[in-house]
Structure formats: C-alpha cells, structure tokens
Write a structure and sequence with these properties.
By secondary structure, the chain is mainly α. About 75% of the residues lie in helices and about 0% in strands.
C-alpha cells in the first residue's frame, strides 16, 4: 500500500473520527446515537495512539506519539481546573466542596507529571533519538494558554460572579503555580533541550497568542464596521399610522374572545 494512502487510512481518518464521535455522542438524544458516537471516538483514539506502530514511516505518526504522552497529564490538569471552577456558587452543574480539593489535587498531579516529562526521562523522544518536535510546539502553548485561562477565569469570577471569591483565589493559585513552572522551564535545562532553546519557544508561543488576540479583535472591528456601514446606507423605516377606531375594536373583540368578557 502506498505510504500516503496508508497514512490517510490509519492516521488522518481515525483522527477525523475523534471530533465526529464527540459531536454524535453529545448532540444526539437517542441512546444508540450516543453509543455509536462513543464507539467512533474510542476507535479513532485507539488508532491515533497506535500510529507510531501502524504508520511508523509517516511523519504524522509523531502526533500520535505525542498524544500518547500528553493525554494523561492534560486530562488531569483540565479536569482539575473544571472541578475547581464549578465547585462554588454556580446555578447549573454545581459540584461539592470536596470536589474542589480533589480538583486541586488533580491539577497538582498533572503539573508534577508534566515536570517529570520535561526535566527527566519521560520527554517524548522518537525512535530516531530526536525530541518530538510537536512537543516543543504543544508544551509552551499549553502552559501559556493555561496561565491565561486561570487568570482570566479568576478575574471573571471576581467581577461577574456572585460569592465566587474562594474559587477565584484557587484559580489565582493555579495561575501562580503555572507561572512559576514557566519561569523554571525558561531558566533550568531539561533532559533533552536547553533553557535557552525552550525560552525561544515560550516567546514564540506568547507571540502566537498575542497575534491571535489582536487578529480576533481586528476581525470583530472589521465585521462591526461592515455591519455599521451597511446599516447606515439603509433608508430610514417609514412611520406607520396609529390604529384606527375599527382596528382597536377588532383587537378588543379578539382579546375579549380569548380572555373572557370580564377582562
């Protein structure tokens, strides 16, 4: 089988099954649809994780190789963040106070797991002996995005939330822990890369994030200007005449027939 066709069938198609399976399992109400979506999700996830063995000659298998390394700590960190955020005064999906401490524990374990991957012998390294290049893209972006998410969520809870000061303090603590982690990665060499090299990727990630923010702001401004200029050129709507006596009587008869003569 051709290498490109093999990569398409054993990697890219299973990778596409993951969001499709999530969409089917979450958007459909029937039990069969949810089951089918979950099956598609599991099959796609399994084949993507197996891509280093099914398509080892394809460069795309490095994504599956990285995914197998990061899925555990990423789930712990994000699930811990969710448990902390929803353990307070929220109208829907509120968790118990004990879940808050469990979420902090999950977050801490996930960060320790990532630190072991970065500074010790669990760094994603390919069979060729080279560090997985997608790791150097994912990890800085993940840390920067996580710190921004914790900080913005904590501020939003203080400004918009009702009695959410305890949860906001926990989120600020998570932000501080992530920030300390970033500073350490920028100054302490890892097992497979120097701090100078990783510092470069951190700054590139910050530049990407700033570019995304400014690009989104410019897109919103451009869209608003287009809508404003279009509506400005529209003619003013014509004023309608007040209802006549016959129209008022007709409306009164309809209301009376629906609500009763006593209204």
């Amino acid at each position: 089988m051709d290498d490109m066709l093999q990569a398409a069938l054993l990697f890219w198609l299973p990778l596409a099954l993951i969001p499709v399976g999530v969409w089917i399992s979450q958007s459909k109400k029937s039990t069969n649809s949810k089951t089918n979506g979950t099956i598609l999700l599991i099959i796609g996830l399994f084949l993507v994780l197996a891509s280093p063995w099914t398509v080892p000659q394809s460069p795309s298998s490095a994504v599956g190789h990285l995914f197998g390394f990061i899925v555990g700590p990423s789930i712990l960190v994000l699930f811990g963040l969710y448990m902390v955020a929803y353990s307070g005064n929220v109208p829907v999906g509120r968790l118990s106070t004990g879940d808050k401490y469990l979420g902090l524990l999950f977050f801490f374990i996930g960060m320790v797991w990532f630190s072991i991957m970065h500074w010790f012998d669990l760094t994603p390294v390919l069979d060729s002996g080279e560090i997985n290049r997608f790791w150097l893209i994912f990890f800085p972006n993940f840390l920067i995005s996580l710190s921004c998410l914790c900080l913005s969520a904590g501020i939003a809870m203080l400004v918009l939330g009702d009695n959410r000061s305890a949860e906001s303090k926990n989120l600020f603590f998570m932000f501080g822990l992530t920030l300390i982690f970033i500073i350490c990665t920028m100054n302490i060499d890892s097992s497979d890369s120097t701090s100078n090299e990783f510092r470069k990727y951190i700054w590139l990630s910050i530049a990407d994030l700033v570019g995304i923010i400014f690009g989104s702001i410019l897109a919103i401004i451009s869209f608003s200007l287009v809508i404003y200029s279009y509506e400005k050129r529209l003619p003013k709507p014509k004023s309608i005449l007040p209802p006549t006596e016959n129209e008022l009587k007709h409306s009164a008869n309809i209301i009376s027939s629906n609500l009763g003569d006593d209204v």
